[in-house]
Write a structure and sequence with these properties.
The protein is of the alpha+beta class. The protein has eleven helices and twelve strands. It has two domains: 139 residues, 60s Ribosomal Protein L30, Chain: A (2-Layer Sandwich), CATH 3.30.1330.10; 172 residues, Phosphoribosyl-aminoimidazole Synthetase, Chain A, domain 2. A six-stranded mixed β-sheet has the order 8-10-7-11-9-12. It has a four-stranded mixed β-sheet with strand order 3-6-4-5. The protein has a two-stranded antiparallel sheet with strand order 1-2. Helix 1 runs parallel beside helix 4, helix 3 packs parallel to helix 4 and helix 8 crosses helix 10. It is globular. It is an enzyme of class 6 (ligase). It is found in: Cytoplasm. It comes from Acrocarpospora corrugata.
Length: 341
């Protein structure tokens, strides 16, 4: 005779994980969340959308990529969920949408209840930081397909924006100013190159590099900064033209997505000093500037385009909210490109 447990699936461990994460998930709750006694679905009271004249629902889905492999190597799982939320909600806010709720999905080789609770606790904390609710999720045990200590996670989020307030390239004008919102580090992109550098340069995650104030592993696991509430605050106080979430592809490629074909963004590389972690990776990995530019955020996690006469106000607001911000460049007539001058 065979059982599910014989096949490597522990239903009781899954139930235990759910119990451990309940309090953390509750911390992300919004007033619009409605309890579903069955637990099969997450419910959100759509009557909240009645305050909009023409609400547009926005949706985004993403993962954390191979950064999870570093979390597994360091046996530190309580912040990787913050990375997941940042990747999802900061895509939503680019169009001006307020994140409303998220769901997550974790696939693992073996359900270790405490580890799953730590992962989901990070997702819940990220949702709290983003102002959205974690309304549901799924944990799948895949014995034989994944090693016992392996896992991956993904998530999807939904937001809402007023139709006539939706941001986009059509709002951008010549003489507008490009603002840089500082990243917290590498965020969640480029970790395949990071791991390649670590291997080839024989660098250990517990290693202390002279240019870093903490171990290399601690630096690389710094969670993604979540900008959604800061961007929404900026929208309330200034006439933001567009945002660009700086993820895979780097600064110029992502910023170009928020430009019409009639302008260019001219960026000044001298306007900031890239965080030491990027210099360390470039030097020890012998990575060209071009590859660094198209792989990493280099210290800029989000860009905002605002009218020139509102740049100072925007910088003051964001800096007061704890997000270092500076003038990165300007918008000029062109063909829809973002380049360093």
């Amino acid at each position: 005779m065979s059982s599910y447990a014989d096949a490597g699936v522990d239903i009781e461990a899954g139930d235990r994980a759910v119990e451990l994460m309940k309090a953390k998930v509750a911390s992300s709750r919004r007033p619009e969340v409605v309890d579903d006694a069955s637990g099969f679905a997450g419910l959100f009271d759509a009557s909240a959308l009645l305050r909009f004249r023409r609400p547009l629902l926005a949706t985004s889905t993403d993962g954390v990529g191979t950064k999870v492999m570093l979390a597994q190597r360091l046996d530190k799982h309580d912040t990787i969920g913050i990375d997941l939320v940042g990747m999802v909600v900061d895509d939503l806010v680019v169009c001006g949408a307020e994140p409303l709720f998220m769901t997550d999905y974790i696939a693992c080789g073996k359900v270790v209840p405490e580890r799953i609770a730590e992962i989901v606790g990070g997702v819940a904390e990220g949702c709290r930081l983003a102002g959205c609710a974690l309304v549901g999720g799924e944990t799948a045990e895949h014995p034989g397909a994944m090693a016992a200590d392996e896992y991956d996670l993904a998530g999807a989020g939904t937001g809402v924006v007023e139709a006539d307030a939706m941001l986009g390239p059509d709002r951008v004008r010549p003489r507008d100013v490009v603002l840089a919102l500082a990243s917290s580090g590498v965020h969640s992109n480029g970790y395949s190159l990071v791991r390649h550098i670590l291997k080839n340069a024989d660098l250990g995650l517990e290693q202390h590099l002279p240019e870093l104030s903490r171990t290399l592993g601690e630096e690389l696991l710094e969670p993604t900064r979540i900008y959604s509430l800061d961007c929404l605050a900026l929208l309330r106080e200034t006439a933001v033209r567009a945002f660009a979430h700086i993820t895979g592809g780097g600064l110029t490629a992502n910023l170009a997505r928020s430009l019409p074909g009639t302008v260019d963004a001219l960026l000044d590389r001298r306007s900031w000093t890239q965080p030491a972690i990027f210099t360390a990776l470039a030097e020890r990995g012998k990575v060209s500037q071009a590859d660094m530019d198209r792989t990493f955020n280099l210290g800029v996690g989000m860009a905002a385009i605002v009218p020139a006469d509102e740049a100072d106000k925007a910088i003051t607001l964001l800096t007061t909210r704890g997000v270092p911000t500076w003038i990165l460049g300007e918008i000029t007539p062109g063909t829809g490109k973002a380049t360093f001058r």
